[in-house]
Here is the input.
Amino acid sequence: MTSSIKILISTILLMVAAYTKAMAQQDAMYSQYMFNYLLVNPGYAGSRDVLSMTGMYRRQWINVEGAPSTMTFSADMPLANEKMGVGLTVFKDKLGVEANTGVYASYAYRVRLSQKGTLSFGANAGFTQYSANLADVNQPNNDPAFSANVREINPNFGFGMFYSTDKFYASLALPHMLNNKLTNLEALSSRMKRHYFLGMGYVVGVSPNVKLKPSFLLKMVDGAPLQTDFNLNIWYLDKLGIGGSYRTGDAVVALLEFQATTGLRFGYAYDITTSELARYASGTHEVMIRYEFATLRKKIITPRHF
Here is the structure.
């Protein structure tokens, strides 16, 4: 395949991806969110009862130049005898010449409802910088709309509720309240849409050594069809997790998690595209590394799977 054909296909794919992101989910997409719900819900902050730090990198369509890529770092911890939680999320989501870079702080107030269940009410606040290097776009007509780069900073805030026990969780979140408009963008027109997330998960003990964890996440975006992730993970000896996901209208996902030590976990996900883009693009890779300061625990407890 000649380089010109490759450039043409890459351009078409990026245009389709940009349109899809404008009409559907605009927030960065993750396949391993179920292991770090702070990316979805600020009410999750502090729920793991220790200082927890997680880094993730996602690379979509590895054979397409300029395809989406996302880098994320998050950290959260409990305070005041686990009655509160605080968190921080930093990310950069890039698609072609466009990029979103954000910093958000989270706070959660945690209410113990029983000996095993806790309900958290969370809020987050921060900003996202939108950038578009339009001057880098090769276009033959010298359109003045592409003559300058764009930089805009938009503040935002959101809310969430998170209920959890040792074996079950339920999550409801609206992480971005404001429908920010990119007022200075002439070449493209876009407005941030509200995203609603509803999720649940449960851990089932099959034997002393094996656990099953089914879960789902329903994603609702103003003006777009509903999308649901159906997930199933199998854990062996609380060390090795193997599973898969089906994301409606988008992909099937293979998941692998490894608890190397009490505090260190590695994760990997491979997405196989099921939409029409599969004709041109290969799979998506996502890696995760988490470190938790487990020595800060007052007692040894069963490893958490959410």
